[in-house]
Amino acid sequence: MGLYGHRLVIMNFWKMTASYKNTFYVSVNHKKTSAPEHLQGRAVAISDDIANVLSNLRIKVQGK
After folding, report:
1. Can you tell which superkingdom this protein's organism belongs to (predicted)?
2. What digits encode the pLDDT tens for the residues 21-51?
3. pTM of this prediction?
4. Which whole-number Å values give the CA distances from 63 to 52, 56, 59, 60, in the listed order?
């Protein structure tokens, strides 16, 4: 896809998040990641492996 195509996909998710008031944008990347400033308060950037993020989320949801 290349960097340009990747940015187009991300920008579309940003637009959708901005358009719908009950949405929240989450970016997970093993290396560097960031949340767009225009979605401040409605976005979070997590720099970690997705497997770790999902495992921790499962533990929190299940209360274990």
Report:
1. Bacteria
2. 999 999 999 988 888 899 989 999 999 999 9
3. 0.75
4. 16, 10, 6, 5
Backbone angles phi, psi at 48, to 5 degrees: -165, 170
Give me the domain span that covers residue 42: 2-62
Phi, psi of 31 (to 5 degrees): -105, -130
Q: Taking a C-beta distance cutoff of 8 angstroms, is the pair 34, 52 a contact?
A: no
- Domain count of the chain? 1
Q: What is the DSSP string of 9-26?
A: HHHHHHHHHHH-TT--EE
Backbone angles phi, psi at 34, to 5 degrees: -155, 160
Q: Which residues contact 35 (CB under 8 A, 6 or more apart)?
A: 25, 27, 43, 44, 45
